[in-house]
Design goal:
With about 500 residues, the protein is α/β, with parallel strands linked by helices. The chain has 16 helices and 23 strands. Strand 2, helix 2 and strand 3 form a beta-alpha-beta unit.
Length: about 500
């Protein structure tokens, strides 16, 4: 059965499930496989639960005479091909976004801006892999005017595979950094893989949105000799130019359309609800794409000012006793360096940093962890704690912890004798459910007088600011290959830090 025939079946049953525990009536079950599971084993059960068809790729699970079980060569490939066939039924702009950092935030900002004029379909959460992308494409329907699709990668060829199914009409790379080096092999491997989006755009004469301030991206674009580019950045060469005004703690910036035919281009100021100066690139990307598709400048500014993150990226949560800044997802050398840089400029007297291992760095892991340690030495923080095996191999006098359990054991005592700080009360009585805490952008926050703040960023950094006098920064070790937080563990740590220790005072 070819893809046209399979798509005809999909049109009659426009609901695909890959989870045999969730089988809506008349849906299609696709038997995907992973390291620890084989969906083929559950094909028959999926039909019994309500699916009209089950697509499998192992002959032993086919049933003679049962036309509702369809055997294909590879279920994942079939899933993506059905999604591509579906995408081809929509003659609308499709914006492809990838990058090492900031792609999810940029996708959200671009979508918010475009929503001022269009009905937008965009990637939900970070569904950006070879399963998430087809699920995203299959959400397209006749009411959508435009689509924004995020694509992620951890190995060479990942973007090439995804982009061939997404078939973007335009696109951008947010940045390229030293992440997933175990999978990519080197930084050049990162550039080559992310550049697979550029390859597709060039081959199909598509429009490129280019960060003119990023030397690596400029070089990658020049190598491919793009004919169609709209640029943005913090340089006078960019079509859309911007600069940071302040971060106190939220980013405020200004921007100008230097490509405007007006004799004097107007400069706009935007007050955002995102934390971190690095978010200006994400903002400028959204402005550039919005202008290209005819969204008025005032509406663009309104969208950016209204956007409040609720996806645990550059997010500020306020509790009765604390301000929580949540931004934790997948640490890597470039993002952790940015996080430390932001931490450095925070206007507090005393600072302590506790950092967890970065994962998936392969042969350069030792070098990259040592670079982070050296950076911390230069910044002269009051005290540094390092967590994990990789940081344990670094050459430093900083205190080291084997794992997060050792860090947790010290939480009860950490405030007693830290550079003139004493603790008079401490109890872990207060419990606040933070929900699912993930994210991937770095940021900073300045303490308000007589307030406590928790600062969470860069794959696992938690900071405490009290009374505008001092800061304590902590992290969990990464959980899983990509360094995601274990949310149970994270909540335990946060609850410990949110204990009733408000009576601490400077000695």
């Amino acid at each position: 059965m070819d893809i046209k025939e399979l798509y005809n079946i999909y049109q009659q049953h426009p609901c695909i499930t890959t989870d045999s525990r969730n089988c809506p009536k008349d849906s299609i079950f696709i038997a995907l496989k992973g390291e620890s599971f084989d969906g083929n084993k559950f094909a028959k059960a999926a039909l019994e639960k309500g699916c009209s068809y089950a697509i499998i790729d192992e002959k032993e699970y086919a049933v003679d005479g049962n036309d509702n079980i369809i055997l294909v060569d590879d279920c994942l490939t079939t899933f993506k091909e059905i999604a591509r066939e579906h995408r081809r039924h929509f003659d609308i702009p499709v914006i492809g976004i990838t990058g090492t950092n900031g792609k999810t935030t940029t996708k959200e900002l671009v979508s918010a801006v475009l929503a001022k004029k269009f009905n937008v379909m965009h990637t939900e959460g970070n569904f950006n892999n070879d399963v998430g992308v087809p699920k995203t494409l299959l959400r397209l329907d006749s009411k959508h005017d435009i689509a924004v699709v995020e694509m992620g990668a951890s190995h060479p060829g990942d973007i090439k595979k995804l982009v061939e199914y997404v078939e973007p009409t335009c696109g951008m790379i947010t940045n390229v950094g030293r992440a997933h080096l175990l999978g990519f092999g080197s930084f050049e491997g990162v550039k080559k893989t992310k550049g697979e989006l550029y390859d597709f755009l060039k081959e199909h004469d598509c429009l490129l949105f280019l960060n003119e301030s990023n030397d690596d991206l400029v070089e990658m674009a020049q190598q491919r000799e793009f004919n169609r580019i709209v640029s943005y950045g913090q340089t006078d060469d960019a079509n859309i130019n911007g600069e940071v005004i302040s971060c106190a703690p939220f980013l405020k910036f200004c921007w100008t359309d230097l490509s405007s035919t007006d004799t004097k281009a107007k400069t706009y100021e935007v007050q955002t609800h995102l934390i971190g100066a690095y978010n200006i690139d994400n903002m400028l990307a959204a402005i550039t794409i919005g202008l290209h598709f005819g969204v008025e400048a005032e509406k663009i500014n309104s969208a950016l000012e209204e956007y409040t993150p609720d996806n645990n990226r550059s997010q500020l949560d306020v509790t009765k006793y604390n301000k929580l800044i949540v931004d934790a997802y997948n640490a890597n050398p470039s993002s952790m360096a940015a996080a430390i840089d932001n931490f450095k400029v925070m206007d507090v007297d005393k600072k302590m940093a506790i950092l967890g291992d970065m994962r998936e760095l392969g042969d350069v892991s030792m070098v990259e962890h040592q670079k982070i340690v050296d950076k911390l030495k230069e910044y002269g923080l009051n005290e540094i704690w390092l967590v994990g095996d990789e940081f344990g191999k670094t050459e430093t006098d900083f205190r080291k912890f084997k794992d997060v359990e050792e860090v947790k054991a010290d939480f009860v005592d950490f405030g007693q004798h830290f550079n003139g700080v004493t603790q008079t009360r401490f109890g872990a009585a207060r419990q606040v459910d933070l929900g699912d805490i993930t994210g991937d952008d770095r940021f900073r926050v300045k303490a308000d007088t007589r307030q406590e703040h928790f600062h969470l960023f860069d794959g696992g950094v938690l900071a405490l600011i009290e009374n505008d006098e001092r800061i304590v920064q902590r992290t969990t070790a990464h959980v899983g290959e990509r360094g995601h937080f274990d949310n149970v563990t994270l909540n335990e740590l946060l609850n410990l830090l949110k204990a009733e220790h408000l009576e601490q005072r400077i000695v």
